[in-house]
Amino acid sequence: MQAITQLINDDSFPPSEQALDYPNGLLAVGGDLSPARLMAAYRQGIFPWYEEPQPVLWWTPDPRSVLFPDRLHISRSLRKTLRKDRFRLAVDQNFEAVMRNCAQLRGDGLGTWIGDDMLAAYCDLHHIGHAHSIEVYNPAGELVGGLYGIAIGRAYFGESMFSEETDASKVGLVALVSILRRGGFGIIDCQVESDHLNSLGAENISRLDFEQRLGETIDVAHDPEIWRLPATCGELL
């Protein structure tokens, strides 16, 4: 049985080919969620996923679910929602609230992987300009959808999304893609395949292909002024 690398202090991550086949992509355990550690992880296509208070688990699955910004699929029903123009949009105005909504207990009662340590760590990344959120509000001004993730160079690493009203998270993704296209981003990391993301155009690629694409985008700076949106979703069309 293959041993998992135990990270101590400032240990580097092992090569991705050492990740387990089962559970798919488990690479290392331990370490912390400091900004330096997180940024080093994402630059190598590695992300944390665990339930507190357990030690941090680090993953790099194969295959990898990704969405190329120019391949976003907007269904006719979603276009209709956008044209109705009933949602208001914002960027980076309520990052912590988006995370807290994403962290709500799942319906199966098994809890959430977004614990207090994860919340604090990503809020730190937000405060130093690496983590971004899209917020979707209904006509009453209530936060009803959104998503958050990490932007490094021209790669965006999606972390989680939530929706309290029909199509709210999908509108948030359309808004994100609008920003990323404007900024010349080459790839959105979706981590693990899901039917929801597949319906929006996500696809699986090999880990090697993913890492090669990261190498082409991660060190290409983007203009920080791209992180803005029209006030209403109708203007995204």
TrEMBL record:
Lineage of source species: Bacteria, Pseudomonadati, Pseudomonadota, Gammaproteobacteria, Cellvibrionales
Compartment(s): Cytoplasm
Function: Functions in the N-end rule pathway of protein degradation where it conjugates Leu, Phe and, less efficiently, Met from aminoacyl-tRNAs to the N-termini of proteins containing an N-terminal arginine or lysine.
Any Gene Ontology CC annotation: cytoplasm
A GO BP entry: protein catabolic process
This protein's name: Leucyl/phenylalanyl-tRNA--protein transferase
Keyword Transit peptide appears in the UniProt entry: no
Entry keyword set: Acyltransferase, Cytoplasm, Transferase
